[in-house]
């Protein structure tokens, strides 16, 4: 929401700039991955590069696929490719299954990560959170996940930024599906 009290002016400028670049790329016919990468990069910049963001998309079979994760290694993305939404698995799979924000301040303490925690921890991540990306009717299209290098919850500014950028991602995903 423009003019909110949560984002500082420079953070607001970052979020609005990412949204505008994404819209411009979408209008110019850029691949969806490139459009979505603008949004994930903004979250990483907001996190002062102590975070890594990822957008996963639900495919026609209802499985999670990489939409844009420019700073996650290919072997990590291969390992999580085709995850089935599950309220008891990780943050993105749980967010896709429940349609709700899922937060994991520590992979050690969350049983949803029992079978997957070795993957992000090998990359130096300690926790994560994920917001579902929804269309206007509330249907989950994918997830917007953020990994942290320390045990913590997202800040209010991160929550607001991801909420706004997830809405922009929903527009882009729908436009690509229709186009």
TrEMBL record:
Highest taxon, organism lineage: Bacteria
Gene3D superfamilies assigned: 3.30.450.40
SUPFAM superfamilies: GAF domain-like
InterPro entries recorded: GAF, GAF-like_dom_sf
Protein name: GAF domain-containing protein
Organism: Ramlibacter pallidus
Residue span, GAF domain: 31-173
């Amino acid at each position: 929401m423009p003019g909110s009290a949560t984002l500082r002016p420079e953070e607001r400028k970052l979020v609005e700039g990412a949204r505008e670049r994404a819209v411009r790329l979408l209008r110019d016919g850029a691949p969806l991955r490139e459009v979505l990468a603008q949004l994930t990069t903004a979250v990483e910049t907001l996190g002062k590069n102590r975070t890594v963001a990822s957008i996963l998309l639900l495919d026609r079979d209802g499985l999670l696929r990489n939409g844009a994760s420019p700073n996650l290694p290919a072997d990590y993305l291969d390992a999580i490719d085709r995850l089935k939404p599950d309220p008891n698995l990780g943050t993105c799979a749980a967010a896709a299954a429940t349609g709700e924000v899922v937060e994991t301040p520590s992979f050690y303490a969350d049983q949803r990560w029992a079978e997957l925690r070795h993957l992000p921890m090998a990359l130096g991540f300690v926790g994560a959170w994920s917001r579902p990306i929804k269309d206007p009717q509330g249907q989950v299209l994918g997830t917007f996940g953020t990994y942290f290098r320390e045990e913590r919850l997202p800040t209010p500014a991160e929550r607001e930024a991801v909420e706004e950028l997830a809405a922009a991602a929903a527009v882009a995903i729908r436009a690509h599906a229709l186009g």
